[in-house]
Amino acid sequence: MRPTHLRRNLRRRLRAGLAVSATLLLGIGLTAVLSAPASAATGCRVTYTVNQWQGGFSANVALTNLGDPLNGWTLSWNFANGQTVTQGWGGEFSQSGSRVTVTNASWNAALGTNATVTPGFNGTWNGSNTAPTSFTLNGVTCTGSPGGGTGQPPTTRPPTPTPTQPGGAVWRSSEQWGTWTNGGYTLYNNIWGSGAGSQSIWANSYSNWGVTANHPNTGGVKSYPNATRNVNRNLSAIGSLTSNFNVTVPSGGAYASTYDIWADNHAYEIMLWMNKTGPVGPLGSLQTTASVGGHTWQIYRGSNGANEVFSFIRTSNTNSGTIDIRAVLNWIRTAGWYGDVLVGDVQFGYEITSSAGGLNFTTNSFSVSYG
User: Fold this and answer.
1) Contact at 8 Å (CB) between 37 and 67?
2) Which of 30, 200, 285, 327 is in Cβ range 3.0-4.6 Å of 140 for a Cys bridge?
3) Residue 8 counted as domain residue
4) Domain limit, last residue, from 125, 141, 157
5) Predicted structure pTM score
6) 122, 75: one domain
Protein backbone atom coordinates (compact mmCIF):
# COMPACT_ATOMS: atom_id res chain seq x y z
CA MET A 1 0.00 0.00 0.00
CA ARG A 2 1.30 3.43 -0.88
CA PRO A 3 1.98 5.89 1.98
CA THR A 4 -0.88 8.26 2.77
CA HIS A 5 0.70 11.28 1.11
CA LEU A 6 1.29 9.28 -2.08
CA ARG A 7 -2.36 8.20 -2.22
CA ARG A 8 -3.37 11.80 -1.66
CA ASN A 9 -1.17 13.05 -4.49
CA LEU A 10 -2.33 10.31 -6.87
CA ARG A 11 -5.91 11.42 -6.31
CA ARG A 12 -4.89 14.98 -7.15
CA ARG A 13 -3.55 13.80 -10.50
CA LEU A 14 -7.09 12.93 -11.60
CA ARG A 15 -7.66 16.58 -12.26
CA ALA A 16 -4.51 16.97 -14.40
CA GLY A 17 -5.12 18.94 -17.52
CA LEU A 18 -7.30 21.55 -15.84
CA ALA A 19 -6.17 24.69 -16.72
CA VAL A 20 1.55 32.49 12.50
CA SER A 21 2.55 35.02 14.22
CA ALA A 22 3.29 38.08 16.19
CA THR A 23 4.27 41.22 14.27
CA LEU A 24 6.04 44.26 15.66
CA LEU A 25 6.08 47.33 13.38
CA LEU A 26 8.66 49.98 14.18
CA GLY A 27 9.43 53.30 12.47
CA ILE A 28 13.11 54.03 12.05
CA GLY A 29 15.19 57.08 11.07
CA LEU A 30 18.83 58.18 10.90
CA THR A 31 21.04 60.85 9.35
CA ALA A 32 24.18 59.03 8.20
CA VAL A 33 24.80 55.52 6.92
CA LEU A 34 27.83 53.34 6.32
CA SER A 35 29.14 53.48 2.75
CA ALA A 36 26.84 56.41 1.87
CA PRO A 37 27.53 60.17 1.72
CA ALA A 38 27.52 61.81 5.16
CA SER A 39 24.75 64.17 4.12
CA ALA A 40 22.35 61.45 2.95
CA ALA A 41 18.97 61.53 4.66
CA THR A 42 17.79 58.05 5.55
CA GLY A 43 14.96 56.31 7.38
CA CYS A 44 13.54 52.86 7.53
CA ARG A 45 10.77 50.58 8.75
CA VAL A 46 11.14 47.14 10.36
CA THR A 47 8.54 44.37 10.52
CA TYR A 48 9.58 41.63 12.94
CA THR A 49 7.54 38.43 12.45
CA VAL A 50 7.85 35.35 14.68
CA ASN A 51 6.60 31.79 14.36
CA GLN A 52 7.44 29.85 17.51
CA TRP A 53 7.14 26.43 19.07
CA GLN A 54 8.26 25.09 22.46
CA GLY A 55 11.89 26.07 22.90
CA GLY A 56 12.44 27.31 19.36
CA PHE A 57 11.32 29.91 16.87
CA SER A 58 11.80 31.24 13.35
CA ALA A 59 11.78 34.99 12.66
CA ASN A 60 11.85 37.25 9.64
CA VAL A 61 13.09 40.85 9.96
CA ALA A 62 11.79 42.89 7.01
CA LEU A 63 13.82 46.10 6.66
CA THR A 64 12.44 48.79 4.32
CA ASN A 65 14.60 51.78 3.36
CA LEU A 66 12.51 54.98 3.45
CA GLY A 67 15.31 57.39 2.57
CA ASP A 68 18.23 57.74 0.17
CA PRO A 69 19.66 54.60 -1.48
CA LEU A 70 22.11 52.65 0.70
CA ASN A 71 25.19 50.72 -0.31
CA GLY A 72 25.77 48.56 2.74
CA TRP A 73 23.64 48.14 5.88
CA THR A 74 23.97 46.79 9.42
CA LEU A 75 20.89 46.13 11.52
CA SER A 76 21.10 45.49 15.28
CA TRP A 77 18.81 44.80 18.24
CA ASN A 78 18.84 43.38 21.77
CA PHE A 79 16.95 40.34 23.01
CA ALA A 80 15.29 40.74 26.40
CA ASN A 81 14.94 37.08 27.42
CA GLY A 82 18.23 35.39 26.54
CA GLN A 83 17.15 34.23 23.09
CA THR A 84 19.91 32.79 20.89
CA VAL A 85 20.26 32.87 17.12
CA THR A 86 21.26 29.43 15.86
CA GLN A 87 21.34 30.04 12.10
CA GLY A 88 20.49 32.89 9.77
CA TRP A 89 19.90 33.73 6.12
CA GLY A 90 19.65 36.86 3.98
CA GLY A 91 22.53 38.51 5.88
CA GLU A 92 25.60 37.80 7.99
CA PHE A 93 24.58 37.20 11.63
CA SER A 94 26.61 37.57 14.80
CA GLN A 95 25.58 37.65 18.45
CA SER A 96 27.34 38.84 21.59
CA GLY A 97 25.29 38.30 24.73
CA SER A 98 21.85 39.74 24.05
CA ARG A 99 23.06 41.88 21.13
CA VAL A 100 22.34 40.58 17.60
CA THR A 101 23.88 42.17 14.51
CA VAL A 102 23.02 41.44 10.87
CA THR A 103 25.22 42.80 8.10
CA ASN A 104 24.27 42.69 4.43
CA ALA A 105 25.44 39.83 2.28
CA SER A 106 27.35 40.64 -0.92
CA TRP A 107 24.24 40.16 -3.05
CA ASN A 108 21.89 42.46 -1.08
CA ALA A 109 24.17 45.35 -0.03
CA ALA A 110 22.39 47.82 -2.31
CA LEU A 111 19.08 48.95 -0.81
CA GLY A 112 17.23 51.52 -2.88
CA THR A 113 14.57 53.95 -1.70
CA ASN A 114 11.44 52.03 -0.63
CA ALA A 115 13.24 48.72 -1.23
CA THR A 116 12.93 45.92 1.32
CA VAL A 117 15.37 43.23 2.41
CA THR A 118 14.23 40.34 4.63
CA PRO A 119 16.94 38.58 6.63
CA GLY A 120 15.65 35.76 8.80
CA PHE A 121 16.86 33.30 11.38
CA ASN A 122 16.11 30.32 13.58
CA GLY A 123 16.60 30.66 17.32
CA THR A 124 16.01 29.18 20.75
CA TRP A 125 14.18 30.58 23.77
CA ASN A 126 13.39 29.54 27.34
CA GLY A 127 10.65 30.99 29.53
CA SER A 128 9.48 33.77 27.22
CA ASN A 129 10.22 35.12 23.76
CA THR A 130 9.58 38.86 23.84
CA ALA A 131 10.05 40.64 20.51
CA PRO A 132 12.76 43.34 20.34
CA THR A 133 11.45 46.85 21.04
CA SER A 134 14.23 48.89 19.41
CA PHE A 135 16.44 48.55 16.34
CA THR A 136 19.48 50.44 15.07
CA LEU A 137 20.59 50.77 11.47
CA ASN A 138 24.28 51.39 10.88
CA GLY A 139 24.70 52.28 14.55
CA VAL A 140 22.02 54.95 14.69
CA THR A 141 19.00 54.57 16.97
CA CYS A 142 15.83 54.53 14.90
CA THR A 143 13.36 57.29 15.61
CA GLY A 144 10.54 57.03 13.10
CA SER A 145 11.09 59.45 10.20
CA PRO A 146 13.64 60.01 7.43
CA GLY A 147 16.57 62.02 8.71
CA GLY A 148 15.32 61.81 12.29
CA GLY A 149 18.31 60.12 13.93
CA THR A 150 21.10 61.85 15.81
CA GLY A 151 23.84 59.22 16.18
CA GLN A 152 26.92 58.46 14.09
CA PRO A 153 27.61 55.34 12.07
CA PRO A 154 30.09 52.79 13.43
CA THR A 155 33.66 52.88 12.14
CA THR A 156 34.03 49.08 11.90
CA ARG A 157 31.75 46.25 10.94
CA PRO A 158 31.04 43.29 13.24
CA PRO A 159 32.41 39.78 12.56
CA THR A 160 30.85 38.15 9.49
CA PRO A 161 30.15 34.43 9.92
CA THR A 162 29.03 32.45 6.88
CA PRO A 163 25.28 32.96 6.41
CA THR A 164 22.79 30.19 5.75
CA GLN A 165 21.73 30.66 2.13
CA PRO A 166 19.40 28.42 0.11
CA GLY A 167 22.48 26.65 -1.30
CA GLY A 168 23.58 25.72 2.23
CA ALA A 169 20.16 25.24 3.79
CA VAL A 170 19.45 22.96 6.72
CA TRP A 171 17.68 20.49 4.42
CA ARG A 172 17.68 19.93 0.68
CA SER A 173 16.18 17.21 -1.49
CA SER A 174 15.61 16.47 -5.16
CA GLU A 175 13.85 13.18 -4.44
CA GLN A 176 10.38 12.72 -5.86
CA TRP A 177 8.79 12.23 -2.43
CA GLY A 178 11.47 13.88 -0.28
CA THR A 179 10.21 14.77 3.24
CA TRP A 180 11.55 16.60 6.31
CA THR A 181 9.96 17.30 9.70
CA ASN A 182 10.62 20.45 11.73
CA GLY A 183 8.75 22.19 14.57
CA GLY A 184 5.63 20.02 14.26
CA TYR A 185 5.40 20.47 10.46
CA THR A 186 6.37 18.20 7.56
CA LEU A 187 7.80 19.49 4.29
CA TYR A 188 7.18 17.49 1.09
CA ASN A 189 8.93 17.83 -2.26
CA ASN A 190 6.08 15.96 -4.04
CA ILE A 191 6.72 15.49 -7.75
CA TRP A 192 4.02 13.46 -9.45
CA GLY A 193 6.04 11.55 -11.98
CA SER A 194 4.55 11.25 -15.46
CA GLY A 195 5.24 14.33 -17.55
CA ALA A 196 7.09 16.14 -14.74
CA GLY A 197 10.55 17.59 -14.95
CA SER A 198 13.01 18.21 -12.11
CA GLN A 199 12.46 19.90 -8.77
CA SER A 200 14.70 20.65 -5.79
CA ILE A 201 13.45 21.78 -2.38
CA TRP A 202 15.45 23.57 0.34
CA ALA A 203 14.50 24.60 3.88
CA ASN A 204 15.95 26.54 6.77
CA SER A 205 12.82 25.77 8.80
CA TYR A 206 9.19 24.84 8.24
CA SER A 207 8.53 28.58 7.96
CA ASN A 208 11.32 29.44 5.50
CA TRP A 209 11.73 27.17 2.50
CA GLY A 210 11.52 27.11 -1.25
CA VAL A 211 11.82 25.14 -4.46
CA THR A 212 13.45 25.46 -7.84
CA ALA A 213 11.18 23.72 -10.33
CA ASN A 214 11.76 22.97 -14.00
CA HIS A 215 8.58 21.43 -15.39
CA PRO A 216 7.64 21.47 -19.10
CA ASN A 217 5.02 23.79 -20.56
CA THR A 218 2.38 21.11 -20.92
CA GLY A 219 -1.05 20.70 -19.33
CA GLY A 220 -1.67 19.01 -16.03
CA VAL A 221 -0.35 19.62 -12.52
CA LYS A 222 3.21 18.35 -12.12
CA SER A 223 3.91 18.88 -8.43
CA TYR A 224 2.75 20.28 -5.12
CA PRO A 225 5.73 21.05 -2.84
CA ASN A 226 4.26 22.03 0.52
CA ALA A 227 4.53 22.43 4.27
CA THR A 228 1.94 20.49 6.30
CA ARG A 229 0.58 20.72 9.84
CA ASN A 230 -1.84 18.11 11.12
CA VAL A 231 -4.79 19.35 13.19
CA ASN A 232 -6.80 16.12 13.70
CA ARG A 233 -9.86 17.67 15.37
CA ASN A 234 -13.53 17.73 14.59
CA LEU A 235 -14.63 21.08 13.23
CA SER A 236 -17.01 21.65 16.14
CA ALA A 237 -14.11 21.21 18.59
CA ILE A 238 -11.91 23.85 16.94
CA GLY A 239 -12.10 27.24 18.64
CA SER A 240 -9.71 28.90 16.22
CA LEU A 241 -7.72 27.90 13.15
CA THR A 242 -5.70 30.58 11.38
CA SER A 243 -2.67 30.78 9.14
CA ASN A 244 -0.17 33.40 7.98
CA PHE A 245 1.97 33.27 4.85
CA ASN A 246 4.42 35.43 2.91
CA VAL A 247 5.88 34.24 -0.40
CA THR A 248 7.98 35.35 -3.34
CA VAL A 249 6.87 33.76 -6.61
CA PRO A 250 7.81 34.09 -10.30
CA SER A 251 5.87 36.21 -12.76
CA GLY A 252 5.91 33.47 -15.40
CA GLY A 253 4.94 29.83 -15.60
CA ALA A 254 1.62 28.28 -14.63
CA TYR A 255 0.90 27.60 -10.97
CA ALA A 256 -1.21 28.41 -7.93
CA SER A 257 0.03 29.38 -4.46
CA THR A 258 -2.56 27.47 -2.47
CA TYR A 259 -3.67 25.94 0.77
CA ASP A 260 -4.85 22.33 0.60
CA ILE A 261 -6.94 21.25 3.59
CA TRP A 262 -8.10 17.67 4.03
CA ALA A 263 -11.13 16.50 6.03
CA ASP A 264 -12.75 13.17 6.97
CA ASN A 265 -9.74 11.06 5.99
CA HIS A 266 -9.41 12.76 2.59
CA ALA A 267 -13.08 12.51 1.67
CA TYR A 268 -13.07 16.30 1.28
CA GLU A 269 -10.39 18.60 -0.15
CA ILE A 270 -10.61 22.33 0.48
CA MET A 271 -8.30 24.51 -1.61
CA LEU A 272 -7.65 28.19 -0.92
CA TRP A 273 -5.94 29.75 -3.95
CA MET A 274 -4.06 32.90 -2.90
CA ASN A 275 -2.26 33.49 -6.19
CA LYS A 276 -2.80 31.94 -9.62
CA THR A 277 -0.60 32.61 -12.63
CA GLY A 278 -0.84 31.28 -16.17
CA PRO A 279 -3.36 28.81 -17.65
CA VAL A 280 -4.59 27.10 -14.49
CA GLY A 281 -8.10 26.68 -13.12
CA PRO A 282 -10.09 24.92 -10.38
CA LEU A 283 -12.04 21.69 -10.59
CA GLY A 284 -15.84 21.82 -10.78
CA SER A 285 -18.29 24.64 -11.42
CA LEU A 286 -18.66 28.11 -9.96
CA GLN A 287 -21.22 28.18 -7.12
CA THR A 288 -21.06 31.73 -5.80
CA THR A 289 -18.82 34.63 -4.76
CA ALA A 290 -18.47 35.27 -1.03
CA SER A 291 -16.32 37.12 1.51
CA VAL A 292 -15.24 34.82 4.34
CA GLY A 293 -12.11 34.26 6.39
CA GLY A 294 -10.78 37.74 5.64
CA HIS A 295 -10.84 37.40 1.83
CA THR A 296 -13.26 37.49 -1.10
CA TRP A 297 -13.46 34.30 -3.18
CA GLN A 298 -15.03 32.72 -6.20
CA ILE A 299 -16.15 29.36 -4.84
CA TYR A 300 -16.16 26.19 -6.97
CA ARG A 301 -17.49 22.72 -6.17
CA GLY A 302 -16.58 19.49 -7.93
CA SER A 303 -15.28 15.93 -7.61
CA ASN A 304 -12.24 14.12 -8.95
CA GLY A 305 -13.84 10.69 -8.51
CA ALA A 306 -12.07 10.00 -5.24
CA ASN A 307 -13.11 12.97 -3.11
CA GLU A 308 -15.16 16.15 -3.24
CA VAL A 309 -13.19 19.32 -3.92
CA PHE A 310 -14.17 22.81 -2.77
CA SER A 311 -11.96 25.50 -4.33
CA PHE A 312 -11.90 29.07 -3.00
CA ILE A 313 -10.19 31.25 -5.63
CA ARG A 314 -9.21 34.67 -4.32
CA THR A 315 -10.64 37.39 -6.56
CA SER A 316 -7.24 39.14 -6.66
CA ASN A 317 -3.76 37.71 -6.24
CA THR A 318 -1.83 38.24 -3.02
CA ASN A 319 1.58 37.03 -1.84
CA SER A 320 1.01 37.54 1.88
CA GLY A 321 -1.79 37.58 4.39
CA THR A 322 -3.68 35.99 7.27
CA ILE A 323 -6.58 33.57 6.77
CA ASP A 324 -9.28 32.50 9.19
CA ILE A 325 -9.46 28.90 8.00
CA ARG A 326 -12.06 27.91 10.60
CA ALA A 327 -14.45 30.52 9.17
CA VAL A 328 -14.02 29.04 5.68
CA LEU A 329 -14.63 25.49 6.92
CA ASN A 330 -17.73 26.59 8.83
CA TRP A 331 -19.03 28.38 5.71
CA ILE A 332 -18.90 25.07 3.83
CA ARG A 333 -20.70 23.31 6.69
CA THR A 334 -23.40 25.98 6.77
CA ALA A 335 -23.84 25.52 3.01
CA GLY A 336 -24.69 21.89 3.73
CA TRP A 337 -21.83 20.45 1.69
CA TYR A 338 -20.51 18.41 4.66
CA GLY A 339 -21.21 17.94 8.38
CA ASP A 340 -19.01 18.05 11.49
CA VAL A 341 -15.93 16.83 9.63
CA LEU A 342 -12.62 15.73 11.11
CA VAL A 343 -10.06 18.33 10.02
CA GLY A 344 -6.78 16.64 9.15
CA ASP A 345 -3.83 18.18 7.32
CA VAL A 346 -3.50 21.89 6.62
CA GLN A 347 -0.99 22.29 3.79
CA PHE A 348 0.42 25.31 2.01
CA GLY A 349 2.55 25.23 -1.11
CA TYR A 350 2.74 25.62 -4.86
CA GLU A 351 0.64 23.57 -7.30
CA ILE A 352 2.85 23.80 -10.37
CA THR A 353 1.64 23.06 -13.90
CA SER A 354 4.63 24.47 -15.80
CA SER A 355 7.90 26.19 -14.90
CA ALA A 356 10.16 25.64 -17.90
CA GLY A 357 13.74 26.84 -17.51
CA GLY A 358 13.71 26.54 -13.72
CA LEU A 359 11.61 28.94 -11.63
CA ASN A 360 12.10 29.81 -7.96
CA PHE A 361 9.30 29.76 -5.37
CA THR A 362 10.17 31.00 -1.86
CA THR A 363 8.13 30.78 1.32
CA ASN A 364 9.46 33.67 3.42
CA SER A 365 7.23 32.79 6.38
CA PHE A 366 4.35 30.42 7.11
CA SER A 367 2.55 29.16 10.19
CA VAL A 368 -0.69 27.47 11.25
CA SER A 369 -2.24 28.11 14.70
CA TYR A 370 -5.26 26.37 16.19
CA GLY A 371 -6.95 25.95 19.55
Assistant:
1) no
2) 30
3) no
4) 141
5) 0.60
6) yes
Do 181 and 130 belong to one domain? Answer: no
Measured CA to CA, the distance from residue 14 to residue 17 in angstroms comes to: 9
Domain check: are 195 and 133 in the same one? no
Assess contact for 156 and 162: CB atoms under 8 A.
Answer: no
305/353 same-domain check:
yes
Residue 159 domain flag:
no
**Do 349 and 225 meet the contact criterion of CB atoms below 8 Å apart?**
yes
Three-state secondary structure readout of the chain: CCCHHHHHHHHHHHHCCCCCCEEEEEEEEECCCCCCCCCCCEEEEEEEEEEEECCEEEEEEEEEECCCCEECCEEEEECCCCCEEEEEECCEEEEECCEEEEECCHHHCEECCCCEECCEEEEECECECCCCCCEEECCEECCCCCCCCCCCCCCCCCCCCCCCCHHHCCEEECCCCCEEEECCEEEECCECCCCCCEEEEEEEECCEEEEEEECCCCCCCCECCEEEEEEEEEHHHCCCEEEEEEEECCCCCEEEEEEEEEECCCCEEEEEEEEEECCCCCCCEEEEEEEECCEEEEEEEEECCCCEEEEEEECCCCCEEEEEHHHHHHHHHHCCCCCCCEEEEEEEEEEEEECCCCEEEEEEEEEEEEC
Residue 40 belongs to domain spanning: 22-141
pLDDT tens, the chain, 371 aa long: 334 444 444 444 434 333 333 344 443 333 223 333 323 345 777 777 777 777 888 787 877 777 778 899 898 999 999 999 987 777 899 999 999 999 998 877 887 777 777 787 888 888 889 988 888 888 777 665 443 332 223 322 333 333 333 445 789 999 988 999 998 899 999 998 668 899 999 999 999 999 999 999 988 899 999 999 999 999 999 999 999 999 999 999 999 999 999 999 899 999 999 999 999 999 999 999 999 999 999 999 999 888 999 999 999 999 999 999 999 999 999 999 999 999 999 999 999 999 999 999 999 999 999 98
Within 13 Å of residue 175, how many CA atoms lie on the same side as its CB? 9
